[in-house]
Every structure is written in C-alpha cells, then in structure tokens.
Design a protein that fits this description.
- This protein is of the alpha/beta class and about 270 residues long.
- The chain has two domains: about 150 residues, 3-Layer(aba) Sandwich (Rossmann fold), CATH 3.40.50.720; about 110 residues, ProC C-terminal domain-like fold.
- The chain contains ten helices and eight strands.
- It has an eight-stranded mixed beta sheet with strand order 3-2-1-4-5-6-7-8, with helices on both faces.
- Helix 1 links the parallel strand 1 and strand 2.
- The two termini are about 35 Å apart.
- The structure holds NADP nicotinamide-adenine-dinucleotide phosphate.
Length: about 270
C-alpha cells in the first residue's frame, strides 16, 4: 500500500515519521508533498512529489494543510486521485458536504492527539458514505501505528475531539493548578511535586483501565469515610463541576466559531 502525505507541517511530519518508524513500508511506499520545497529537500524518509503526482500514486492520501489551504489543494488533486484511493482530511471543521462540492471521492476525517508521539493517540475517525469496510480496515490498521482508533459519526467529531485531542491540555492545566497549590503547602521542590503527581495520575489511569474500575470505586477505595482524602474529594465534588461545565460551554462555543471561520476560509 502506498501512502501519501500532503503538507509537511506539524501533523504531516508526525504522521510520516511514525509511519516510517513502524517499518511497515518498503521503498517508494511513502510519498510526501509540500508547498515550500525546502521541507521536502530535508525529507529523507519519503519520496518527494508534487501534490498531483502524489495523488495519482497513493492509495491513501492524507491532506495535512490548514483549512485556508484545503480547498485549493483538494481542487488541485481531485482530478488526479486514483479511482479507488481514500482521501483523508485532518481538519475537523470542514464537513463532508463542503468537500463534496469539490470532490465526490471516498473521504475520511482523522483527528489525532498529541499522545500519538508515544503511540498512544486515540484518533477520532469518521467516514463519508462512499468509504467501504475494506477502506476502513486499511485506515484503522494504518492509524493503529499511532495508537487506538475511535470511530464516531460526523456530528460527534467535535465533542470527541474535546475528549481526546483537547484533553491533554485540559489535564495538564488542571494538574498544573494542583501542583501550584501543593507548592504553597510544602518545601518539596516543584520538580519533585510534578513528578509525584504525574506518575500517580498516569498509574491511576492505568489501574482503572486495567481493572475496569470506575471513578467512584477509586474514590471509595482511597477516601475512607471521615478520613483525610475525603476532605479533599468533597471540595472537588462541590467546587469543580461548575468549572468543568464552564470549560465545555466555552470550548464548544469556540469550536462553533472556529468551524464558521474554517467554512469561510474554505470558501
Ligand atoms: N497541530 C495539531 O495539533 C492538529 C491536531 C489535529 C488536527 N490538525 C489539523 O491538521 C491540519 C494541519 O495542521 P498543522 O498543524 O500540521 O499545520 P502546519 O504545521 O501549518 O502545516 C501545514 C503544512 O501544509 C503545507 N501546505 C500549505 N499549502 C499547501 C499546498 N497548497 N500544497 C502542499 N502543501 C501545502 C504548508 O507548507 P509551507 O511549508 O509552505 O507552509 C505546511 O508545511 C489542519 O487542518 C489542522 O486543523 C492539527
């Protein structure tokens, strides 16, 4: 299978490096294209191509450009795509309906998470009606290189992205606040506090996933009635829901505005 990536920016590069490192691709099976030629000159792990050459050779074509550039790239490559290839857009805001105005090709949308860097992405995927089960299997297997794949209907991609793509930022900011507060109550250096909290956070997640535990079960196990932990968990359950509701209200509203801007940029 030949995989092509158009747009050697943050996402395109990450995908290319991961696909290459998987060892699943032979010579000539990874293709790359980019607007500014300098990025391709430095690329040693894929065959440098023009957008149209890539589209005419690849079985799966990842388009990793910003929304403002997406329309022109799709218009340019649409006539060259192989009849049976799969087109993949990385932009959550550009809908299949908008893409259909340019090309009626088999199309998927893919939203990876930053945790792809350690092959633990939970990548959101959705498909237009033309994508076959075999295409889905090929894409799942490819994206399996960077972690798990979660298939959602197009109307749930926004909230799905909040839960896996934005969540590393939410988690980091929550625990940043917790560590800053802890610092005020101890002489343990911040660096050590952060390590303790991060390892506990990561181990708690693994424990819950491995043993299929609920949040409630963990809280009950640790926060015995009338004990010290319970004092803390009571505060969190009393005060944090308002902040969490506000967070999703704000991010989902911003997502709507971003989708509107992306649609305008797409034209
Ligand atoms: N970054 C993230 O965390 C993330 C996460 C999920 C989804 N996404 C989505 O992924 C897409 C790409 O984002 P990004 O952060 O990777 O963007 P980026 O770093 O700005 O990279 C975009 C790349 O596209 C290239 N490009 C632009 N127009 C082109 C054209 N006509 N032909 C060929 N290449 C062209 C640019 O080339 P130049 O070198 O000339 O600028 C640049 O290398 C966006 O839709 C974004 O919403 C991003």
């Amino acid at each position: 299978m030949t995989v092509g990536i158009i747009g050697m920016g943050s996402m395109g590069n990450m995908l290319l490096e991961k696909f290459y490192a998987s060892g699943k691709f032979g010579e000539g099976e990874l293709l790359a294209a980019n607007r500014s030629p300098e990025k391709l000159e430095q690329c040693r792990i894929a065959v440098p191509c023009s957008n149209t050459e890539l589209a005419s050779r690849a079985d799966i074509v990842f388009v990793c450009v910003r929304p403002v550039d997406l329309k022109s790239v799709l218009s340019e490559i649409a006539p060259c795509l192989k009849e049976d290839s799969l087109l993949v857009s990385l932009n959550g805001s550009i809908t299949f309906d908008m893409i259909r105005n340019i090309t009626d090709h088999k199309t998927a949308k893919v939203i990876p998470s930053v945790t792809a860097e350690i092959n633990r992405s939970q990548t959101i995927v959705c498909y237009n009606g033309k994508v076959t089960e075999q295409d889905k299997e090929s894409l799942r297997s490819l994206l399996g290189i960077i972690g798990e794949v979660i298939e959602l209907p197009e109307n749930e991609v926004g909230m799905g992205s909040e839960l896996v793509s934005c969540m590393p930022g939410f988690i980091a900011s929550i625990f940043d606040v917790v560590c800053t507060s802890a610092e005020k109550h101890t002489d343990i250096p911040r660096e050590q506090i952060v390590k303790m909290v991060l390892n506990t956070m990561s181990a708690t997640g693994d424990l819950m996933l491995r043993n299929d535990m609920t949040f409630d079960e963990v809280v009950t196990r640790v926060a015995t009635k009338g004990g010290i932990t319970e004092e803390g968990t009571k505060v969190i359950y009393e005060m944090f829901p308002e902040a969490a509701d506000e967070m999703f209200d704000k991010t989902l509203e911003k997502r709507k505005q971003t989708a509107k801007k992306a649609a305008e940029a797409f034209g």
